[in-house]
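Internal tracking record. Fields below are filled automatically when a chain is submitted to the structure queue. Please do not edit lines marked as system-generated. If the sequence contains nonstandard residues, flag them in the REMARKS field before resubmitting.
Queue: standard
Priority: normal
Entity type: single polypeptide chain
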Amino acid sequence: MNKNLLEYLQKYGSHTIAFSSVYDDKMNEYYLPDIGYVMYGKNKNIRFMLGDPLCASENREKLLKNFIDDTVSKKDLLVGMQCSQETAEYFTKHGYSANHFGVETILFLDSFNTTGKAKSKVRRWLNSAKKSGLEVRECDAKDSVMHKEIDRISEEWLKKKSNQQELTLLTRPFKNEYEPGVRFFCGFLGDKIVGVNTFEPMFSDNKIIGYYANICRIDDDAPNGTLDLIQETARGFFKEEGCKYYSFGLSPLSDIDDKGKMHNPIVTTLLNANYKYGNSLYSFQGLDFHKKSYHDGVSSDIVPKYLITKGTLPINQIINTLGYIGILPTSNFISNLSYLGETMVKGFYESNKVKLGISEDDFKNIIPNLLKGLSYSEISESLHLNSLLVEDFAKSLTSIGKQKLPEFQENMYIQRNLNDTSKHIFAVIEDIVDKDPDALFAYNIGISTLPEGHYVMMSIEVNGRKTIYKANFITARIKSKIKKKCPNILGTFIETEPAGQYAYKIGLDNIEEKVITLSP
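SYSTEM-GENERATED OUTPUT FOLLOWS
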């Protein structure tokens, strides 16, 4: 281990994930002499920066600026994970977006206790474990017998998960071995270990100020509340030792509250959809519920963490991030994209199957057929569904997409800085499309400006019942109206898409609150 890096960790490693970032074998280090370190993982051409830089607060901007420049010089992309608000705000000054990525639950050890109505669930879990006879002890990480038992528990635990990969970036892969500073607490039924939790130190000015509950494992014989009692016992040790903080770590995608101008709304929608419908990929909601059961707003705090990306549509970055973490199962982008989409569609169906009134297979088959441009009658015939049901479903997707337009407006246009002329052209286009009886709405609008005039390109959604001939007639009509309103437009290029395409591409935020109304 790099001695100099350890010195920076012990001086500036106060954020929860600092220790993991240094001791994770997948991490690389970027060092700016006499300033500090940035820890990052690397997959293909993407650098995944983990947590905040290890440096003095007054050197943060200088270190990050050099790291960004180094990343760009190597023609890599940069994604930041679990960053503080201060770090996120700095990245936005350099053209990056900062999306709320979840929250970290922190307990203040000098005042935290399990009394009060807000923590009734916690007391129930603890009492259940105590009544079962569970005993908790701190174990020697060098004990070979203990290692064999923990390996057994870990292997069995992974087999039961829907996603059997060890994760990184959200946490780090489990190491069942001695590491300086890492504490092992185990739960015993008699002489048998039935649960284990590892705890990593948080540092400030060469002192341990708290611990992060990192890796946990339980076996089938573990009583309800095993991990809660293990952690409660560990907190007692840490408090006696003078520690101030105890962190449950990140609850990914929880309490996403993107306001202001820092975030990319398309990423917000994708992350919200993952939280709601992606629980077979990762137990987002279960972890969130459990950690928040300890939060009372007095002896605890919930701290937002951020995801850093760049670009209007950083879908490739998001998919690669989820794949690198281990949430998605393969290293192939297309396979992961398909897997993510199928999982979210399945999750949405499970949440709304009573209201939808159709089978899961039919629901999943409607969407790709709409995207192929098939008519409602063709889809209904092939799936043996009522054509009005298919039509209403597609129109509902388009309606939701239009409702989201104000949130996505800046991302609809290829140009990011609009002058008066382009603003006028956009306004004319939107007005013409909005009033056209067959065009549902326009997006991906772009203008190419030449000395003699402008060329316009766009996509429009049209009713799925229209034939190719009819679609061509619709585009010709729209082009004629645009030319009449804006004589300086030299040419207009229009791509037609079936109803529901835009809403499907961007994901559906809060879709369960805008339930699709289906015809009988």
